[in-house]
Design a protein that fits this description.
This protein is of the alpha+beta class. The protein is 32% helix and 18% strand. The chain contains 9 helices and 14 strands. The strands form 3 sheets. An 8-stranded mixed β-sheet has the order 1-2-10-7-12-5-4-3. A 4-stranded antiparallel β-sheet has the order 6-11-8-9, with no helix packed on it. Helix 3 packs across helix 6 and helix 4 packs across helix 6. It is globular and about 65 Å long.
Length: 371
């Protein structure tokens, strides 16, 4: 029995070692998933084989119960009754779905198209040019790699990403690649303006002063991720992004026409069908924490697809790039004897460190901070 146990341990150690070698070999190519596709792979490497999800099938019944709300922001500043109607819809969406789409949000359609084009131009440029920018060092203003949690996640996701830290410190133009420089900066300016409006509406939806969330620092940091999901030869074996909730206060997402984004709602996967000109807004873990579970940070995923490439641009309002000792906990004004705090106070830095170390393993980082 002792020999058998020792033998099993040795076998496990070898498996871990072999996996680590494969991960490093993939990482060292600096070509990402697109590099595999460019090589003409027809069978995806086992590193990308994701374990089956118990919520396998998407269920869309074609009725309004399974369509996330689309909220028209036109007139939000015109008259009080229209504003209150919009706030009511945002409140309901944030408490039930954790997701909603916004139209007439103030960002020109040309800017939305240009940022998708810019992301595509970056990812589809010559691989030798991209390799010069490939890094796992997250301290710079611009990062390009594949799978931020490459060495910690149970299985890799079928996507590559460029990341740009747009606030609190706006990058210098020369710090960004020429192929997407101007539009990334322009898009960031537009999303920051929209984000401040959304935080005002969310504050009012909580019954607080419109500046409450902004004054807490929710809009101080902004990180843009431009994801590239190449066509996948075996999409049933892997996934674009594993089930997860976002490590942010709020996320503003632009997806292209291909789709594939799903949210987990009442133990069912619901497709979020792309709507022209619309932006998807979802509550992040930190907003669920500070609202003491009033607003929901919904779990979501992106399917791999045969047609690709799929482009999406996710902008995260979070200050995790700026080390801070500031503590966040449930907002005092929302607490009562009947609604005591459900989370311990934490810094964004500590929460983010835990989230990153855990990787996208299908579990929520919020559980770790519950009282």
């Amino acid at each position: 029995m002792e020999f058998s146990t020792t033998h099993e341990i040795a076998g496990t150690v070898k498996q871990v070692s072999d996996r680590l070698c494969k991960l490093k070999a993939f990482d060292d190519t600096k070509a990402g998933v697109k590099g595999l596709v460019d090589e003409g792979v027809t069978k995806i490497p086992s590193l990308f084989h994701n374990p089956p999800d118990r919520f396998v099938k998407a269920l869309n019944l074609g009725n309004t119960e399974n369509i996330i709300p689309v909220i028209d922001l036109a007139g939000v500043g015109k008259d009080q009754s229209t504003r209150q109607e919009i706030i009511g819809r945002i409140r309901e969406a944030s408490e039930t779905w954790g997701f909603f789409q916004v139209v007439n949000h103030g960002i020109p359609l040309t800017v939305l198209e240009d940022i998708k084009d810019g992301a595509r131009r970056f990812h589809e440029q010559d691989s030798e040019v991209k390799k010069e920018l490939y890094t796992r060092d997250l301290t710079g203003p611009f990062v390009y790699n594949s799978n931020f949690d490459l060495y910690s996640s149970p299985a890799l996701n079928w996507r590559d990403t460029l990341a740009c830290f747009l606030a609190p410190n706006t990058p210098k133009p020369e710090d960004l690649p020429v192929v997407c420089r101007d539009i990334v900066l322009e898009y960031g300016t537009n999303v920051m303006k929209l984000g401040i409006t959304l935080f005002e509406l969310l504050s009012e939806a909580l019954g607080l002063h419109s500046d409450h969330l902004k004054d807490m620092g929710c809009a101080e940091g902004l990180l843009a991720l431009c994801h590239y999901y190449p066509a996948c030869p075996e999409p049933e074996l892997t996934i674009g992004i594993t089930k997860h909730s976002d490590n942010s206060f709020l996320t503003v997402l632009l997806q292209d026409h291909i789709g594939g984004l799903q949210i987990l709602y009442q133990d069912k996967w619901i497709d979020i069908t792309p709507a022209p000109g619309a932006l998807i807004v979802n509550i992040g873990d930190f907003l669920q924490l500070v609202t003491n579970d009033r607003f929901k940070s919904a779990e979501h995923r992106v399917l791999a697809n045969l047609i690709g490439p799929r482009i999406s641009v996710a902008c995260f309002f979070s200050t995790d790039v700026k080390p801070s000792s500031k503590l966040y906990g449930p907002i005092k004004e929302l607490l009562s004897e009947d609604n005591p705090p459900k989370y311990r106070e934490t810094t964004v830095t500590d929460f983010s460190a835990y989230y990153t170390a855990k990787g996208l393993d299908g579990t929520s980082a919020l559980q770790h901070f519950r009282i």
